[in-house]
Amino acid sequence: MSAMTWTIAPEPVDSAVAAALWRAYYTEVSDRWYLRYAGHRTDPVELEREIAAVSGTELTPPTGQLLVARYDGEPAGCAGVRLLDPVTAELTRVFVHENRRGRGGAPLLVTTAEQAARGLGATRMILDTRGDLVEARALYARLGYTETERHNDDRYAEHWFRKDLTPGEGLGVDMAVR
């Protein structure tokens, strides 16, 4: 029996794989918010409207990148990077399917996204997240992100993070890890 392998590579934002991962990501974070504040899951009509409202074009070269993680060849997660200015990139849409969590995919996605940001010319990465996404906050802290003051007006954001990206060659965005 062979060891399971993570691979991470750029993915077009309009691919079926990207669409399925965006749907899974948005469904999970939206349901978590509604369950926390309203005691129910996201209304299906609202879910479809919100998914359709975000094209992901900000995650396309030359100023962005969508990365897809595959676990043993199957799509299992994603992360996006977009330049906000010539030296600042934003990390967004970090997601790993629940049945693949705890296997090293999320840290690999984030560090690969950092390499992609460096490739776009960024020297710092910023991100925001919510208070109920405790796993995400722990991951970012573990990877060297520090909590900062608010840097956007996203109504759902409750925590903001930053990390200086040290210059270097890096590993590129095509990776395989066993």
Automatic annotation (TrEMBL):
It holds the Pfam family Acetyltransf_1. Signal peptide: none annotated. GO terms for molecular function: acyltransferase activity, transferring groups other than amino-acyl groups. Residues 50-145 form the N-acetyltransferase domain. Keywords: Acyltransferase, Transferase. It comes from the Bacteria. CDD domains: NAT_SF (cd04301). This is GNAT family N-acetyltransferase. It comes from Streptomyces shenzhenensis.
